[in-house]
Amino acid sequence: MGQRVHIQQEFDVPVERAYAYLAEHENLGTVFGLKVERVQDGDTERNGVGSVRRLSVGGVAPFEETVTKAVPSELIEYRISKGSPLRNHLGTMRFAALPGDRSQLDYTIVFGAAVPLLASVVKRGLESGLKRGLPKVNSYA
Length: 141
Prior knowledge:
single chain; 141 residues; alpha+beta; 4 helices
């Protein structure tokens, strides 16, 4: 059975700044407390379609994510492309402008795993990490 994580977060910064900050691969390490390395720039933009990042989380083997869609200040989609026991992973970050130079992120991650217990553990970890990390964007962006 697949898992779904859904978080909505408002930021006290304009949508352009929130998008730019979260699109930059290396910034994800600061926000979520992970080791993040850029593997490859995107086809036409540094953080755009085709860009690849390697993430290291605790004692888990590193894995890679590849950006599959990117629309500045609107959308980032990515998939795990290498090194993970998760299956059919898709992360979707939708950005929207709010009144008063504020913004909102609607973040959904869907995935499955060959081992059902693993998927449940990953879901709890993702929810906790996102809820703890995303508010930091207000300070960094």
